[in-house]
Amino acid sequence: MPYIARQSFDTKKKCSFFEKSQNLSHVLKQRPSTFASNLIKNIKKMEAKKKFFMDCHLAGRKYHDADEVWDKLKVGTLLELVRDKENYHDPNAVAVVYYDLDTDDDKAPSYVLGYIPREENETIANILEMGWTDLFECRISKINPDAHPEYQIHLTIKIKRKV
Length: 163
What we know:
By secondary structure, the chain is α+β, with helices and mostly antiparallel strands. It contains three helices and six strands.
């Protein structure tokens, strides 16, 4: 049987970074439309349904209805942001409302838990005033019953993608 010499790993030609980039640019030159369309498809798949907007605490908790529904509030509970134009303490007041969907009533009772802090509410107030009431998603991100009442509930607010 004849002896066949094989190339060892060390003698194989190694492709440099420059050669690899030249090969890639050659492929891109051949099919730019296909490459671009696949890239756009992949980016569209990666688009988030929600974007982070802000984190804040629930202001005025001890003056409102949070104690009535305290046992029902959990991390992840969905809340609604409602513009309160009648609030004489803050011209940009945005109330945080919990709807008790566990009741048998046709209309779920609502509970004002508190407000978005006045230092952080102007942008949300303006957007809600313009009629974009379904733009935000507000959820409880942290509950700490041992903290001062003003800092017991923390919220995360996200902007929902328009469908």
